[in-house]
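QA checklist item 7 of 12: single-chain prediction sanity check.
[x] sequence parsed
[x] length recorded as 81
[x] structure emitted
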Amino acid sequence: MLVLTRKANQSIMIGDDIEVSVLAIMGEKVRIGIEAPRSVPVFRKEVYLEIQQEKAAGAEHADRAEVNEALERLKSSQSGK
């Protein structure tokens, strides 16, 4: 992990297109501004983790649905014999 020290109104660059600025420091809170292309998703970590969990649950549900459909096709083909 790269650790940088910045003061209010200072920035860091990530690549050529992403700028992270320290807008204000208020006690234990730091207000940060992020400029990035629209094609780059930017989330708070807790929101990102929630999205990943939802994607995993959706994929698991889709996998289960595929298995159920395959079982139904197998049952149908065997009952037709």
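[x] summary fact logged: The chain has one helix and three strands.
[ ] second reviewer sign-off
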